[in-house]
Amino acid sequence: MKIEMRTRTTKRICCCGSPRFSFLAPPSLFSWYEEDVWTEIAKFLDGISLVMLATTCKWFNLIMMEDCVWKYACLRDLQVPDPGKVAFKWKELYAKAFDGCHSYMFRQQEKHIDWMRIGAFLFDSHSAFLTERLIGPLKVDKEDTMEKMLELKGCCVLNNIKAGIWIADLQLVRCPVCDLNTCDGTMQTLDARHIELFLNEGYQDGSWDYETLGSHDTSKHADGASGGIFDMKHLKDQSTSDILDLKSWVGKQKDWQPKAMITLHAVAVKTNLQENEGLHIKYQAMKTGKDGEVVSIRISQQLL
């Protein structure tokens, strides 16, 4: 079959008086349903907008549900780089990151009071440095056991961390020794989890649970409740120094609102406290089985 493309011509008179012909371009072949065009447009849409557009017709559903679209949206909204291979679809990861879920919704919901999303950070290595003291430089004594470091120095190194994107929240819960509904809440928890945690069957069926790594008490007045989680590989980064510069992000002395700071490879929180008799600090971790990878970390501060 022979296809001919016809063009139209117009006759004009040039300045010398002789006829001059010009060719007009054929009608535009642009389609409003170009996949590449809408994939680019999708980069400017949030999750709700993507779902709304996907429900308009089958064609949009096919394009908007592409995994690359949700990967871009997830990394963009969490403000983290590509972690590489993941075990779930990015659409599912996006949903669990932004649907308002947090760990206390699944367990101890009756103790939960309030929470705030801090943000996301990245574990490049498989080792974390946990500390209740945000004073530099951060030192690691490899000769001490984890229990001794936690008890005497309020810090420890935790190995076998699942690398990738981690999401950090600050939780406010009722103290575990109090059953009064009128309790104002005397415990805050820095709660960090791997982005895939809520999608794993081991977490959903309750077979994965938190283990207490150790605890530490301060027997005198504590001016603040603080905690930090750092990727060991990046302890000497400038971003770690920025977190330890408390004056740049912690509230003034009588500002009782919790404050948090997150960088590409670390997260930290601090809340100024009124007069108190000290703190009980507890460190917990959740593994994917007895000898599995660590997929969630908690640092809790409870008023004594």
Automatic annotation (TrEMBL):
Domain of life where this protein originates: Eukaryota
GO BP term, pick one: reproductive system development
A single Gene Ontology CC term: nucleus
Protein name stated in the entry: Probable F-box At3g61730
